[in-house]
Every structure is written in C-alpha cells, then in structure tokens.
Amino acid sequence: MAAKPTSAARLAAQQPASILDSLVGYRLRRASNRMLSDFSATMAPLALRPVLFAMLEVVRGNPGIIQMGLGTELGIQRANLVPLINELAARDLIERRAAPHDRRAMALFLTPAGEVLLEQADAMVREHEERMLAGLTRGERDKLLELLAKIAAD
Hints:
single chain, mainly alpha, Arc Repressor Mutant, subunit A
C-alpha cells in the first residue's frame, strides 16, 4: 500500500486532498495563525500584541492623529479602541492631548518611552518576518504583498 502524500507533496502536485486545500480563505487563515503565533512569541518580551504594535506604528507615522482617526485607520470600533488606548497610555507609550482643531477630540502622540519600545519592536518584527518568509524570494514576497492588498482592498 502506497503512503498517503503529505500536504507539501499534494501542494506540489496541485492535487487538493479536500475542498479546504483549495480554499484561499482557509489557506489565509492557516498562514495567519502561523504568523500570529510567531509574532506573539517574538513580542512577548515587550508585551506587545499585534493590535498594540499596529496602533503605535500608526501614531508614530501620524503624530497628533485623533483617537477616532486611529480607530478608522485600523478598523477598530470605538468600544474596543478606548481600552486599548488606555492600556498604551498606562504603559506611558502614548500620550493624549487636546486636538488643536477640536478641543473635544484627543490627539495621540508617542512618548519617549513609546519611541524606544517601538524601535525595539521594529527590529524584532523584521526578524520575525525574515524568519517566517525565509522560504520566499524577494519577488515572491513582493507579489504576496501585492495580492494580499488586492484582496483587502475595498
């Protein structure tokens, strides 16, 4: 009796074992789970979850962004956003200031501690990405990013 081919062998032969192997959404979820698992392990020393890392990156790239702008940028609802901002503020990674154009809105800025932590996190994330994508060429990585952007486009 011949041995059942492995998932890698089926992929190479383009012979799906089940409908799951032919579903893009399923493959994306599996890849995402693997990436998030490694990301979480990588960021554990800094106690940064993916959402917190993304928030810090957006604030760094947009100093003075209002809270709701941050939520819109990352697709985070207000009810979920405020506790996350509170967490970052409690860790002295961001600070809130009254927005100059609307005193009711709060503008967000990285603190010096936030800058330092984010520099560490950036280096760790680059290592994580390199480790996870080591089997892909530069061209394949670029194409993957392009294709994922197409899927995510509104």
